[in-house]
Amino acid sequence: MEKYFYGLKGHPIGFIKAETVYDLYGKALGWVDGLSVYGKTGTFVGRLYVVGENHYILKFILDLQPLPLQPREIPNLSPVEFEIRHVENIDPIEVPPGYVDSFQSS
Question: What whole-number distance in Å separates Cα of residue 54 and Cα of residue 76?
């Protein structure tokens, strides 16, 4: 089952399926290791936070960054492997200063 994650302003950014992070169109962005999220190149991009029923991947800009992990070959999903859905915006959330969205969407 997919878990959608959102930006701080409430816009959907992507989803997590089987510990892999994808954008809304199935493009692989990285993976989840515990609560830490890494990009495909192995660089730390943030932590997974749950607020109510909603998921966010956020980075605290003053945190010491973990060492990069080994890059992973993660294939993109084909449209057959998941259903592109319209995901509604949710209400924005406020976080303490220093937290930013890990994945910016346009």
Answer: 24
**Is residue 15 a contact partner of residue 84, using CB atoms and an 8 Å limit?**
no
Judge if pTM exceeds 0.70. yes
Token code pair at residue 90:
């949710």
Q: Where are the alpha helices (DSSP H) in the chain?
A: none
- For residue range 24-47, list pLDDT tens digits in order: 989 999 999 999 999 999 999 999
- CA 95 to each of CA 9, 25, 41: distance values in angstroms, whole numbers, following the listed order: 11, 27, 28
Tell me if 4 sits within 8 A of 87, measured CB to CB. Answer: yes
User: Mean pLDDT, to the nearest integer, of 96-100?
Assistant: 94
Amino acid at 49: Y
Task: Compute the distance between CA of residue 22 and CA of residue 62 in angstroms, rounded to an integer.
Answer: 26
Q: How far apart are CA 69 and CA 67, in angstroms?
A: 6
Rg (CA), the chain: 13
Tokens found for residue 60: 């605290």
